[in-house]
Task: inverse folding
């Protein structure tokens, strides 16, 4: 073989060498997503950074098991769901009370936009807290993160019909909670 040319037999071998994935790359590509999803899955704001670190420790440990033909995002989400569940259980069972809440990040939007978005986020968080973990995970993945139901089922390790059933039950629960909130607030 001459320098600078590849035979068709050498290209796949070279591709597999270049397609190695490391934890730093996974973090750069999915860190913001995981941070957002942990919060949406009910991890207390003061615990989100610790849970984020825990997710990527698990990613680091399990990366050799990752199927390179699969999509990375659902795999990372599945890990995030389990870490979020453990973080919520730890906080619930913990007797420790935090001295202060985590500081709010600076937002470049107008104050009115910020207030409205924060109120909507708080209402959604309260509503999602009322839904059991299995339905909540399906709802967040499908409705907020826009994964397809088959992808959700794969991430959560459940049959597709079960994912559809959980999604429908969560949608009904969220719609009922929103209706009750609007009636209470006179909206």
Result:
């Amino acid at each position: 073989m001459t320098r600078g040319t590849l035979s068709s037999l050498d290209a796949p071998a070279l591709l597999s060498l270049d397609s190695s994935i490391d934890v730093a790359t996974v973090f750069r590509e999915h860190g913001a997503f995981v941070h957002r999803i942990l919060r949406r899955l009910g991890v207390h704001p003061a615990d989100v950074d610790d849970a984020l670190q825990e997710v990527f420790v698990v990613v680091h440990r399990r990366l050799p098991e990752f199927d390179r033909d699969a999509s990375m995002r659902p795999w990372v989400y599945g890990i995030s769901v389990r870490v979020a569940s453990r973080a919520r259980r730890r906080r619930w069972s913990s007797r420790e009370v935090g001295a202060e809440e985590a500081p709010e990040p600076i937002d470049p939007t107008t104050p009115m936009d910020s207030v409205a978005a924060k109120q909507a986020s708080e209402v959604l968080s309260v509503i999602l807290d009322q839904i059991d973990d299995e339905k909540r995970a399906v709802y967040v993945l499908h409705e907020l993160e826009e994964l397809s139901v088959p992808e959700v089922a794969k991430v959560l390790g459940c049959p597709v019909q079960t994912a559809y059933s959980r999604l429908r039950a969560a949608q009904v629960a969220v719609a009922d909670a929103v209706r009750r909130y609007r009636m209470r607030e006179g909206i």
